[in-house]
Amino acid sequence: MINFIEQLLPKNIANLTAYSSAKSEKITGSTWLNANESPFSQQISITLDDLNRYPEPQPEAVINAYAQYSNLNNNQVLMTRGADEGIELLIRTFCIPQQDSIALFLPTYGMYKVTAESHNVALNALTQAELQTGSIASLIKEIGTSKLVFICNPNNPTGAMVSVDRIREISVQVGSKTLIVVDEAYIEFCPEQSALSLLEQCNNIVILRTLSKAFGLAGLRTGFMLSRPEILAPVRKVIAPYPVSTVVARIAENALTPSSITTMQQQVTDLNQFKQQLIKECKQSSAIKSVLTGEGNFVTVELNSVSVLDIAKEMGLIMRPFTLFGSNAWLRISIGNQQELKQVSIWLDAINQQ
Ligand SMILES: *Cc1c(COP(=O)(O)O)cnc(C)c1O
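That is the input. Now the predicted structure with pyridoxal-5'-phosphate docked in place:
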């Protein structure tokens, strides 16, 4: 039976390691600081009387609202099922399987690799160090003929930022053979560092956004692809005919009213403050060897020993372990509410007292 299936599978799918999360692993816990979700949830109730009809392929009210929020024209905005679908659409639209490659800067968000591999597109694996400090000339050489360059900004899970000037420089130097994809999943936590202004100046920039993080709607599965109309045009041919359900569109519209955006921004201010407190505690803890301080609603630390995770597990405190820079002792802690972060303090105190 297994042999039969294996014969059906293309090699790249047989060899694929799926994206793994606490949810997919069915881990149980009570405090969820593993997926960079917002701790703030809204009560939403909607009345629907048109579910017998297919939805608008691109719901106009949502597109208008997001265009207004990001100061763009409607034709520069494409709504997707999360930023993850944006990643997939770009690879499907622009990359020729078994021929093209995407460039990415490790360590970074895991879905670029999973998506490229599942479409038989090669990885041109560069490093965050090269992206942050390498000369532009050597970066351009390393990017070579890669079709897409994924710059996660702020970078998940390190929090590192590349300046808009540097992105502009890379975009100009790679020229029109390559698209620069700036994944701004966490940009609401440092909005002044958005690459949005580059959409006018450069012709090869795509920006990915999501409602999953600062907007507190990870369960909705909504993202946006922002770019020039000429770049979005072929993507519009590839996207499913009705990607966004009527229900999702109604809720997303609500999340993008001026008052909802103000609420989101207040929550960002609070979360950024909680984060400073957590960084301070981590720096003082005997359990922690180093703390990466960057942008985003998470703090990534290196533990002196992974054994302290057993204590967290017993407490029902779920965080995201990572192997980074050759060490398996890294841990990303999402910024939750004060009660959730109290659990992190209790955990760190318990270790300090050992
Ligand atoms: C969370 C995350 C995404 C996925 O966003 P969805 O809109 O939930 O699909 C994309 N990129 C990065 C860097 C992320 O951290």
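The radius of gyration is 21 Å.
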